[in-house]
C-alpha cells in the first residue's frame, strides 16, 4: 500500500479480496488531482467539499507526491481549490470557514514541501496562477484581517493566526518566501496591534501575534523597505505597546518559573546533579515544550520592539506586582494539548487588571527585571549553539538598552529600587546566594551584577569571545552615562575590578591557545580602558573618595597581572606579525596603570621598611595611597567616554539571518494545525452554524 493510500481515510474492509473504502473527502481530493474539472459533473462540488472534515495528512501527501508533468496537468484544479478556499472565508457558515483555513494551510505546506528547489514565482503559479495571484492574495489577506478584527470566535481567530504563521514559515529562509511580498502589500499590521491592545484577545492570541510580527519584520529587512518595520517603529499607542510588553513578560516569566521549579526539584542532590540540570534545562521535553528556540522567538520580538521603537523603552520600566503563576492553569483549554512555553499564560488577565490591589509588602517587578532573570539563566551555559545565540541576543538587547538615554535614566533612578534575584551558576568555590540577602537597589546594579557574573563564570577553553566583548562594552556604556550625568552609584565596584583583573590574568595564561582563534588584544584593550575610565573620571561617578582609593589599592595589589600584560603586549608589538598593531594599542593604553604601579609600589615598600612591617594591611596601603596622590602624574587620554553606537547592519546581519531561520524552523514544527483539534473546532461550530 502506498504512503498516500496509508494516509487516506479508510472506512472498512468488506472482504479480504476487496480494497478498503475511502472516506468521501479523500475521494473528492482524488477528483481534484485528476485532469478534469471536478465541478464539471457536480456543480455543488466546492460547497460539499468545505462541509467535509479536512484530511490534512492525505491532502499534503498528495501534493508532495505530484511529479513535474502532473503539476502542469492539475494546476488549474489546484488554482481553483485555492480560489474557492479564499471565497469560502467570506461565508457565514463557520464549519466551512474552518475547513477552508485548514485546507489553505495544507496547500501552502504541501506545495512548498514538494517544490523546495522551485522559484517563488513557480510556487505562486502552481498555487493560484501568477496572473491572478495579486487579486487572490489581496482577497485572502482582507478576509483574514476581517476575521481577526471582527466578532469571530476565539478559535477561528487562533486558526487565522496559525495559517499566517504556517504561510510565513513554509520556507527555511523567510526572505526567500516570495508569497510574503503580498503580505507586505496587504498589511495585517493593524490586526496584530488590535489583538495586542485588547486584554481578552491578547490573553488568547498574544503569543502567536507577537511571534508573527517578529517574523514579518525580518522579511528582506536589509534588501527593501519592509512596511512592518516602518509601522512598528512609529507605534505610540500606549495600550498596544503595553500589550506587547505583557505578552513578552508573561512568556519569560513562565520560562523563569519552570526553570526555578526544576532547580528546586534538584535541590539536595549532588553537585553533579545540579550541573547536569543546568545543562539540560533548555532541551524540550515532550510534555513541556520547553525549548530555547521557542524563547528565541519571544526574545527576537523583544529585541525588535526595543531596537525599532523608542516608545517601547517606557514599557520596560512599568511596575506591577510580582505574581507567582501556578504551574498548571486552573481551567485548561482543551483545544491546545501541548502549547509552547508562554503561549496562553493563565494569569495574564489578572496582571492586566488595572484594579489589581497593590500590597505595600509585595515585591514589584517589570519587564526588564523578568528579562534580566531570564538572561541570567540562558547565559549560564553557552556551549550549545542555541544557548549561545540566546545569550548573544540577550546581550544585544542590553546593548540597545544601555545606549538609550531614557532607559539609562530609569536604570539609575534612586527612586526606583528593586530586589533582583539573578540566577547564578553553581560553582564549587562559592556558596549559593540567599534570596533574602539581596538588597533593593537601582536596576543598573542588577545589569552590572549580570555582566560580572558572566565574566567570572565563562573563562574556559572554548572561550566565548564575542559575548565577552559585548559584556565589557555594555559596562563601558553604563559608565559613560554615569560620568556624563555625574551619577555616584553605590555599587560594589571592587567585585567588577576583581573580575576584570582575573579576566586579564586568564588571557595571559592562555595566550597561545586563545590567539589561535581570537584577537585577545582587542578585549584586553577594552578591559584596560575600563580601568582608564575609573582612573580618569572616577572622581565624578564613584560614590566616595574611599572608592577611588580602593581602585588604586586593587591596581597596586594586582600589579603583577598588569606587569605581565605589559611585557606580553610589548613583546608582540615589537615583533612583526598580525597582532603587532593591536598589541601596540594596549601598550599605549597601559600608560596610566603603569604610572600608578611605578609611583605607589616604591612608596609602599619604603613605608614597610621604615616601619619594620613585613606585610602591610589594606588600611596601611590605603594610607600610603592617600598621602601620595599629590606627586602622581597621569596622562590625559582622549576618547575614553566615547563609544560606537549599536548598528544591526552590517555587523549583525548574518547572525539575525541564521537566528530567524532557526526560529522559523521551530515555529513551523510547533505550529501544526493539529494544535487546534479538528474535532473540538467542528463540535464548537456545529452548534453555531
Radius of gyration: 31 Å
Strand content is under 5%
Major beta sheet, strand line-up: 1-2
Mean pLDDT: 84
**Main sheet overview:** 2 strands, antiparallel
Count of domains: 3
Q: What kind of assembly state do the chains in view correspond to?
A: single chain
List unreliable stretches of 5+ residues.
1-15, 270-294, 323-361
Number of helices: 33
Q: Which shape, going by the Cα principal axes?
A: elongated
Number of strands: 4
Q: What is the end-to-end distance?
A: 38 Å
Task: Estimate percent helicity.
Answer: 55-70%
Structural class: mainly alpha
Structure description:
The chain is mainly alpha-helical. The protein folds into three domains: 24-186 and 660-688; 204-221 and 223-264 and 293-321 and 362-429 and 437-441, no CATH class; 480-644, no CATH class. The chain is built from 33 helices and four strands. The strands form two sheets. Strands 1-2 form a two-stranded antiparallel ribbon. A two-stranded antiparallel sheet has the order 3-4. Helix 12 crosses helix 16 (292-308) and helix 28 (559-573) packs antiparallel against helix 29. The two termini are 38 Å apart. 40% of the residues are buried.
Structural key phrases:
membrane; elongated; mainly alpha; Armadillo-like helical domain-containing protein 3; 3 domains; two-stranded antiparallel ribbon; transmembrane; ARMD3-like; ARM-type_fold
